[in-house]
Amino acid sequence: MEYFLQQKLIEDKKFKKYLDENSNYIKYLNRNPDAYKEFMREMKEYYKERTTDKLSDAINTIDIISSILDTLN
Predict the structure, then answer these.
(1) Burial of 2 (0-12, 13-18, 19+ CB in 10 A)
(2) Are 9 and 15 in contact (CB under 8 A)?
(3) What is the pLDDT of residue 42?
(4) 49 and which of 16, 25, 40, 44 could share a cystine (Cβ 3.0–4.6 Å)?
(5) Quick one: residue 22, left, alpha or beta (phi over 0 = left, psi -120 to 50 = alpha)?
């Protein structure tokens, strides 16, 4: 695996935790460093860090606040 890729993966706690849970990516990243984009995509999907997940969470929070305010009135 390329050195800069190892450093990126080790420095970030989420990357390291995801690699520990899905160790098959170590093999893929060793063979093909370009698989990093796929790794990032799946890691963001697993931890719900995609833009769509963030928007969905924000909408749910607004709905909850709205329903609480409606019950208080």
Answers:
(1) exposed
(2) yes
(3) 92
(4) 44
(5) beta
DSSP string for the chain: --HHHHHHHHHSHHHHHHHHH-THHHHHHHH-GGGHHHHHHHHHHHTT-SHHHHHHHHHHHHHHHHHHHHHH-
Split the chain (73 residues) into runs of 10 and give each run's mean pLDDT: 83 89 89 90 91 93 95 87
| Virtual torsion, Cα 49, 37, 23, 18, nearest 10 deg | -20
Instruction: Take residue 45 and report the two structure tokens written for it.
Output: 């999907």
Cα gap 19→25, rounded to integer Å = 7
pLDDT for residue 64: 95
